[in-house]
Amino acid sequence: MRERKKSGVGGKLILALTLLFFYFPIFYIILFSFNDSRSLTRFSGFSLRWYEKMFADSTMMEAVLYTVLIAVLATAVSTVVGTITAIGLSKSNRVLSAIVERINDLPVMNPDIVTAISLLMFFSVLTVRKGFGTMLLAHIMFCIPYVMLSVTPKLRSLDPNLIEAAMDLGATTFQALTRVVVPQIRSGIVSGALIAFTMSFDDFVISYFATGNGVNNISILVYTMSKRVNPSINALSTIVILLITAALGVVNLVPVLREKHGDGVKPVNRKATAAVAGVLAAALIVTAVMGGTAKRRRERDAAEKYGSSVLKLYLPGEYLGENVISDFESQYGVSVIVENFDSNEMMYTKLQAGDSYDVLIPSDYMIERLIKGDYLQPLDKSLIPNLDNLADAVVGLDYDPDGTWSAPYFWGSVGLVYNHENVDPAVIEAEGWDILRNTDYAGRIYIYDSERDSFMMAFKALGYSMNTDDPAEIEAAYEWLRAMNNTMSPIYVTDEVIDNMMNGYQDIAVVYSGDATVILDENEDMSFFMPYEGTNIWCDAMVIPANAENPKLAHEFIKYMLSYEAAYDGSETVGYASPNAEVLEEMSTSEDLYAENEAYYPRSDGENDEMFHDNVTLQRELSKYWIRVKAEG
Amino acid sequence: MKQFRSMTYPYVAWIAVMIVVPMLLIVLYAFTESGNEVLTFRFTLENFARFVTDSVFLAVLWRSLVIAVITTVICVLLGYPIAYVIAQLGERANTILILLITMPTWVNMLVRTYAWMGILQDEGVLNTFLGFFGVGPVKMIHTSFAVILGMVYNFIPFMILQIHTSLDKLDKNLLNAAADLGADRLHTFLRVTLPLSLPGVISGITLVFLPAVSSFFIPKLLGGGQYVLVGNVIESQFLTSGDWNFGSAISMIMAIIIMVSMYFTRRIDAAANAGKE
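Above: the input entities. Below: the structure tokens describing the complete assembly.
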């Protein structure tokens, strides 16, 4: 007791600083979940719009449900199995425990992506149907080592003769374990369970590759939605924090009340266990109610008209009109499972593993690869009569000249967004891509962190084709980028560039046209320019995989997406150019829409503009050079 | 003690199926070339040679190890006093504080990292705050400081939990005995408390160092992309350039390096244990 009082002031200060450090970002998240704008740095006013958006989104509610369910189950199983195994190992020979420890290190130490790919291949060799079960197995797999890491040190500091003593006194093995060992190591078990729960709750990469059939967790949503900074994620996090706090409050109050009734003091760790259990139970109930209602409503709609008809759609994150999916679902009485990918290559990886979808929306070069690899089935054009309404610019493109395999979804360009208050438009027009090497603007540029787009700029600036595989030209482009990296101190960004440019943090950024449209819409100091030396004009298109389970409905979906209403909604929401001629015309001429927005309409007459072709070896080569550019600087 | 060994059998079978077999697929990739189909076997050491002979990759690996070591050291130096202070408090305070420290980790890592991005911006809250005192703006985002801060923020709870666990059940009689035998507080701490909590520190180091070496979201978002660490290289092999063979080889090389360093860390632990007995 003497000791406790002494550590008073200094100890309190340490604790206060610790909690401040831990909770500062958390309060920041809560504050910005009420922000009126999308920005994560400027608070522009109080609003509940992100909460409305979140509650209206049934996939978000479902994801909460799955996250909690999987975390609870994985924690329970891995805590029990991990503890039993750790106890067993402490009584086994050293070789066995050393081997198990080393193997346990693998999932802890390997980058998640390696574990994820290994499981992806493993599940696809077994040809199991991926979803809740496979995701749960994966989580149990990576959680157990964490439990064992926590329990083992406690076992080591335990008197090795304790169990023998208990058994000599007549206890069975089971009694010796539950009455003697477990109480001694309880704090290790609790912290192991806490870590396991955290790991499961927070996991993205492994979950992404181990799941399928529309079973998502919160992390998968967060990562695939962060394409456009989406503050409803902050709203979701706030709800999670509130749930946990409420549960903790209740659980901590119960022992206090019980004590007053003279029940005596409980051991600390039993309370901690009860607290954890309480949090889980409360979260489970609330999410079950929230997720359940949304799900039931959807299933009833689907069952009414088409029986169990389900369409599985796989597309980039934040790429849909606001009401497109719900409108399609209610018009056709079906339910759509939407899954998102972060890159074309991520999608390709999943297809290779045999995952099945009804409609995919990849990019031009990837469609080329899919056609080559026999992953697609030809479209039945008689089922999609409105293919006639396509804009000229998206008809007869190289990757699929006759439109046999694909129907365009969005198209666009890559260009420079710049702040015309700080950068003279005349200069940027004269210099084109080379402005990214003009040291007047050093430290003020964002480069999109992708070897594909960066080498495209360099090739174009040097007057080469962006599909070149001439080693001398690649070398020259590498030197161009290296000089840029070493003289301009650029910041390499991905999708956060949207938020950053809306806030005007830097003066020049390499941006996709649709993202540029959104930036220009929010910040009137920004302009968009497509350098005359040429740029990448690209097209993302809808295709039906060969192994689609519902190709009929897939055709209906494509037809629907090409319709005026759906195309209008999509293009207006996301900001990319529509393939529908009428919508394109209206968006680019109406004052209320994007007539004033130079980023919206990609040019179709630039003689130096090109599309990417599929070339896996070239891509690998560029990827190697790109790492070198960034790492050597 | 046979019944105890048999308690490990189910898990041994489980890791054989769920960890070893999938990892063998990765090893297979590391030693083969071309194509993503598992069945195109063509044995090669080319993937390893490419990594070892390229100074850029070695530099990246080195930088990752340095950052991870710095992060781990900071986590131990900060985490130990925090865990120690908590362990001194009463039971209820212990429970609440441990939960308070774990709770932020239940908010998605990416969301928390985005929050730090906003906080650390040149125009962010922290610089606005510093501005009141006439300081700054200090360049924080896209620096090593930001990357290490992000890693410490994400991983230190595990360190605190582990150290706290080992301090929590420390036999108070030992401390009293030491005091009775004339040891002052410093000596009691150095001779009794610290050695007894070492297993917790070691497993804390494991839980911080291993994920820190391979993390790629934190360096990407807070370091601004020019901060290439080995996790980013591996990620891009699988997710952008599609070179699974090379990606597998790099992760194998990393695994071996880490295995070796963990082996030595555990030797320290074992030595400490032996000294105790």
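Note for the figure: Chain B touches chain A through 120 residues (CB under 8 Å).
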